[in-house]
Amino acid sequence: MASPTTRSRADSIRVGKSSACGASAFSRNACGGLKNAPARVALGLFPPEVVVQVKALACELPAGRDLPLSRWSVADVAREARRAGIVATISDSTVWRWLNEDAIRPWQHRCWIFPRDPDFAIKAGRILDLYERIWEGRALKADEFVLSADEKTSIQARARIHLTLPSRPGAVMKIEHEYKRCGTWAYLAAMDVHRAKLFGRCEAKSGIVPFERLVAQVMSQSPYNEARCVYLIVDNGSSHRGKPCIARLRERYPRLVVVHGPIHASWLNQIEIYFSILQRKALTPNDFASLQALEERIFGFQNYYESIAEPFEWKYTRRDLNEMLNKMKGFAKSIRKAA
Q1: Which of 48, 135, 247, 258 has the most neighbouring CB atoms within 10 Å?
Q2: Do 131 and 280 have their domain in common?
């Protein structure tokens, strides 16, 4: 016969095996889903349909429930689950655990946009082919080059009113919040995507004339001035937009082919990757005593990057593009049905 101590322990375990509504898993009145539940999930046990309903709630927009919220927090989801009668009581940590199982994070958001260029697939495909050294179905020759170009505008030179302090044990770098504006540069750059070769210039502002000075800088140097063909990938910015840009540059440089990307597809332009590296590594935090100091930093980093960089390992192909577009078509249909 078990000792009183043993019996009391068994009884305490049985009492602990109850649902959120208070029913014991060993009770005759307990629902079938709760009977004989494993001990490891007995405490705080909820029926599967409750878990599904709470996850579905987290995937709704709060406005759909007439709440003055733009997005959910874990506490908001738990509170609304109780208010809507999905469950009588539930902790924030339980809701977080359920959402984490399916990587549902309604408190986060990011901007996105549907491709609206009717020739998106054609234009994007040409760029992806060029990254694989293919043009119109044929492999590029050794004396054909692919460059990506764009402008990084409004780079401010901010002179801090107190010195920036470097890191030291137990303390991070400290930079003064207040600053004096010393002017801005527009940094125009082009990169040979297969050689990691960079060309850049700082201009007072962007525009057609400054951009064409960048092109002249590229096309006046070897091997581009004697190449069979140079393919220049650009976006649809006003400095190099459309057929007029193609005509102007082709008249001046017969071996230059301007390749425009689709609208709202700057992520296809590899120079944007370099701009993001420049921003993180050389321009943040922003502490420059003058425009000249900012210019020196930009060109200093450009030279430094060229000395250590290799071409980007670009893995996104036409196949990936087609899969993405097919998914977006299906997503667009689902949104129209929901609307």
Answers
A1: 258
A2: yes
